Amino acid sequence: MQPLDISATPPTVAEFLHLRQLIGWDSLPEQVVTASLAASLFHCTVRQDGQLLGMARVVGDGYMYFYIQDVVVGPSYQGQGIGALLMDKVEAYLRDAAGPGATVGLLAARGKEGFYQRYGYLERNGEALGLGMCRFVR
């Protein structure tokens, strides 16, 4: 088995769409994915033998607001530390890019909150910070 290849390169549009499909997320138009990936601030991918196993990216304005998006590991590779490899790279990027006063946000999938808490992220339970909210456009 080949070693893992961890890089700061984006996935291809086809890889991104395939990974989303594997984990049960909605499909998106290719032109939307192309533009979204191009507008990202940072990418990290993990591959083995050229196959995408997982990815993560950071979006935002690059100054005050950073948002961790699409931390995704293919179902066959979950539980093997690939998510941690991705988050380690994301956190290294944020240490350099996010200065004092910046905010880093994310939406954790249900049951994955503990994974992000290891990196210092807090649940917005409504007590100190209010509840987080989102809206999905379909």
From TrEMBL:
Record-linked SUPFAM superfamilies: Acyl-CoA N-acyltransferases (Nat) (SSF55729)
Gene3D superfamilies, A to Z: 3.40.630.30
Boundaries of every N-acetyltransferase domain copy: 6-138
Pfam families per UniProt: Acetyltransf_10
InterPro entries: Acetyltransferase_Butenolide, Acyl_CoA_acyltransferase, GNAT_dom
UniProt protein name: GNAT family N-acetyltransferase
Originating species: Bowmanella denitrificans
Upper lineage: Bacteria, Pseudomonadati, Pseudomonadota, Gammaproteobacteria, Alteromonadales
